[in-house]
Write a sequence for this structure.
């Protein structure tokens, strides 16, 4: 029996997976219990593969083609972008737990935009810290494209130090505090964005937490785990059972 292929970005990490974007797709597949396999590729292989498969570009600017991408041989369908993958899986496999409940697609797109707007302080730490974990075949590409995001600054100069670190790290905490505040609108005891039920918004946050766990280092990761009454530690623990690489 043919199963879904998830395309992910190679690294030197045990198990290789590190990207927050592909983590969201993996969480979705495992949350739903859908059989799949993972193929890891270098950055230089992403665009040729996407064009070969007919995957849609995910951006109008460079890089236009990104992972995750899935190929489902059962339907002959190729899907790119983690939220589109979640919607596809919900629609195609209706007997599995939904990640984007009926009538909440617009809210999930709005959440994604709002959450991404909180991320720049976090990215100042996580992006530079990712470089050493990439294979040599991908490091030059990653450096070039990511340094462009920071106005040409070397990645080594992007990570805040000294007083700048104190200020920026507080901004990271405040950003996650904003997300914590959104969840608390459900009530102080709410575990997830939809109360006691995991949805795609939780998967999105978990994907970025996983990225932090992989690249930030022990001290910064342990600091995050103490924030907001342990909410992020609890979410990370809850998602561990869906963090299986096939």
């Amino acid at each position: 029996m043919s199963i879904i292929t998830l395309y992910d970005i190679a690294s030197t990490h045990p198990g290789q997976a590190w990207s927050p974007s592909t983590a969201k797709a993996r969480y979705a597949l495992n949350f739903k219990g859908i059989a799949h396999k993972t193929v890891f590729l270098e950055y230089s292989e992403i665009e040729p593969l996407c064009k070969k498969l007919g995957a849609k570009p995910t951006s109008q600017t460079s890089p236009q083609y990104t992972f995750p991408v899935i190929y489902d041989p059962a339907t002959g369908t190729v899907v790119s972008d983690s939220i589109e993958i979640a919607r596809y899986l919900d629609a195609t496999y209706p007997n599995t737990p939904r990640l984007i409940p009926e009538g909440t697609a617009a809210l999930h797109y709005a959440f994604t935009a709002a959450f991404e707007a909180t991320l720049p302080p976090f990215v100042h730490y996580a992006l530079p810290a990712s470089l050493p974990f990439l294979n040599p075949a991908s490091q030059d590409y990653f450096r070039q494209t990511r340094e462009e995001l920071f106005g040409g600054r070397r990645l080594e100069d992007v990570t805040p130090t000294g007083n700048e670190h104190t200020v920026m790290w507080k901004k990271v905490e405040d950003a996650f505090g904003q997300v914590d505040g959104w969840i608390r609108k459900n009530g102080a005891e709410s575990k997830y964005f939809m109360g006691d039920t995991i949805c795609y918004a939780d998967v999105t946050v978990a994907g970025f937490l996983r990225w932090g766990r992989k690249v930030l280092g022990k001290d910064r990761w342990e600091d995050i785990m103490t924030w907001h009454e342990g909410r992020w530690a609890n979410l990370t623990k809850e998602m561990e059972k869906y963090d299986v690489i096939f």
The beta strands are 4-9, 36-41, 69-72, 77-80. The chain has a mean pLDDT of 97. The chain has two domains: 4-100, 112-242. The longest helix spans residues 162-184.
